[in-house]
Design goal:
By secondary structure, the protein is mostly beta strands. The protein has one domain: DNA-binding pseudobarrel domain (At1g16640 B3 domain). It is built from three helices and eight strands, in the order ββαβββαββαβ. Mean pLDDT is about 85; it is low at about 130-140. It holds the Pfam family EcoRII-N.
Length: about 140
């Protein structure tokens, strides 16, 4: 199973009051982009629906979109990947800034699992090794092995 986590920002959970267009997926993270549905950058704002299951069994559809009008529209400014339609899920999960959003998928499956880890990273990972394990994730995404 592949798992990716993101430390949620204040903007991600809506505590800034700003309008959000979903969680940012960095263009530089090829492994994360390969994990998500393929999008055709030759199209204006291509998108794909992601079928997901929450921990309580609720089925959700998230939208993975590449806002790319910078490359298609004169005066366009956007050039970013986002996962949208998360607001209700994050609110219902009681997500707070600094907590973790996780998305995972079994190899060969088309359905993703999502959850909010209502704890900070240090307390959310169990590792079977000797000595301390330090992982720092102040923002952005990380692949969990």
């Amino acid at each position: 199973m592949k798992r990716f986590i993101k430390s949620l920002s204040a903007n991600d959970v809506g505590s800034t009051g700003a309008h959000m267009a979903g969680i940012l997926v960095p263009k530089s993270d090829g492994e994360l982009l390969a994990f998500l549905p393929q999008l055709d950058p030759k199209q204006l704002n291509p998108s794909a629906w992601i079928d997901c299951v929450a921990p309580d069994g609720t089925e959700l559809r998230l939208r993975f979109v590449y806002y790319n009008n910078r490359h298609h529209t004169p005066g366009g400014t956007r050039n970013e990947y986002r996962i949208t339609h998360l607001t209700g899920f994050l609110r219902d999960a009681g997500a707070k800034e600094g907590e973790l959003f996780e998305i995972s998928r079994e190899e060969g499956s088309s359905t993703y699992q999502i959850r909010v880890i209502n704890d900070h990273l240090e307390n959310a990972i169990s590792v079977d090794t000797e000595g301390p394990v330090r992982i720092k994730l102040t923002s952005g995404w990380a692949r969990m092995h």
